[in-house]
Amino acid sequence: MFHAASSPGSKRTPLPALRPPAPEAPRPQRPDTRRGPSDEQRDPFFDNAKYLAIVLVGLGHAWANIMSDNRLLQTAYTVVYVFHMPAFIIISGYFSRTFDLRPHRLKRLLTGVLVPYLVFQTAYSLFRIHVGHTGDPHINLFVPWYLTWFLCALFVWRLTAPVWRMLRRPLPVALAVAMLASVTPGMGGLLDMQRILQFAPCFVLGMCLKPEHFHLVRRRAARIASVPVFVLTVAAAWWATPGLQISWLYRNAAAQDLGAPWWAGPVTVLVLFACAVLLTACFLAWVPGRRLWCTALGAGTLGGYLLHGFVVRGVLYAGGFEPDWMHGPLGALVVTVVAAAGVTLLCTPAVLRVFRWVMEPRMDWAFRPVAPRTAGESGGTDGRAAVSGQAGTAETAGAETSEKAGAATGR
């Protein structure tokens, strides 16, 4: 018999002590895209830009009612209208660059853009008919009125985003289409196609941009260079205001419709596009990149956009802009402060919660269940990782909210 000490088993390496089982990793929570990405995923820069731009929209709509005898206000209105709509559209195109025609994104497009357009087009038409007693006493869902044109345009632009992304040179093609639209009179108000086509280059430009392009305009050198550009723009607007036909800035008519020769249309499209891009870059150069008191309001710009029109038109219909003092310096100051404060209030989370049912309806009852996406499915159409600068989760989860809530403007 072998001694116990010489047994082969006695020389084996002792087994390690048992470890307690590792706690089960929490299951990843699918982001609630209905409310947008979390604060860690959102870039404060874009929220700040959207808030400041929506304030400019409200100011422009308010100034339009009192600027007839105020050259300084006319100058400010002209400068603002050169870039504030293109700025919104460029940001909208930037967040639409990964949009495709998959079911879950089409559902977001329908519920987040088309449904609000139909609701607010109806609401504004009823407001105009029964409160303002102006215009055609009928509701036409195919002819956008007042500020609803942007939702209609955004629906078309996003629906055609895969086509623009497929082209080798999308921006020159978009500019060519815009120039052709500017020499096509009598297009009419159907879907406001003139604006859709003439503003399309701004949307396509946004789709072509990458995070590093926004980093360039956020540099200190760009901020310094923007000052003389704005000064020269204000001086040029002051000089041109008396003879300027402001309708050119709205992009809602062909050159012949404005009484100009046909060649003026393409030239104006190119000039306005260049000026819009330049001033948008200067505007973005001064947008803070850190979290501020107004950063959270950037997520509620859809409410500020769609609701402020009722206030401005309500004051107009009630004769609030008619007193003589309203057309002087004091009136301009009062209107500016009240309009900025009003738009700010309408962008607050409380207002967004109240109107979420119509601005961001779920409408699950209207759609078939969408199969969950696989783990390897990319947010882009080419399957590659999202470009650097902002987390891919933020791009895919927050894009659909940003495209409609951040990009909202109108005349």
Q: Can you offer a commentary on this structure?
A:
The protein is an all-alpha fold. The protein has helices spanning 44-63, 71-94, 103-132, 149-159, 161-166, 170-181, 193-198, 200-208, 211-217, 220-240, 264-285, 301-317, 329-346, 349-359, 392-405. The longest helix is centred in the N-terminal third of the chain and has 30 residues, at 103-132. It has one domain. 40% of the residues are buried. α3 (103-132) runs antiparallel to α4 (149-159) and α6 (170-181) runs antiparallel to α8. Residues 1-13, 23-40 and 375-411 have low confidence and may be disordered.
List the helices and strands and how they pair.
Layout: H1 44-63, H2 71-94, H3 103-132, H4 149-159, H5 161-166, H6 170-181, H7 193-198, H8 200-208, H9 211-217, H10 220-240, H11 264-285, H12 301-317, H13 329-346, H14 349-359, H15 392-405
Keywords: Acyltransferase, Membrane, Transferase, Transmembrane, Transmembrane helix
Domain Acyltransferase: 44-342
GO molecular function, one term: acyltransferase activity
Report strand %.
Answer: under 5%
Structural class: mainly alpha
Low-pLDDT runs of 5+ residues are: 1-13, 23-40, 375-411
State the share of residues found in helices, binned by percent. Answer: 55-70%
Distance between the termini: 103 Å
The global form is globular
Average the pLDDT over all residues and give the rounded result: 84
CA gyration radius, whole angstroms: 26 Å
Query: Count the strands?
Result: 0
Report the biggest beta sheet as strand number plus sense, adding barrel if it closes: none
Q: Report the order of strands and helices.
A: HHHHHHHHHHHHHHH
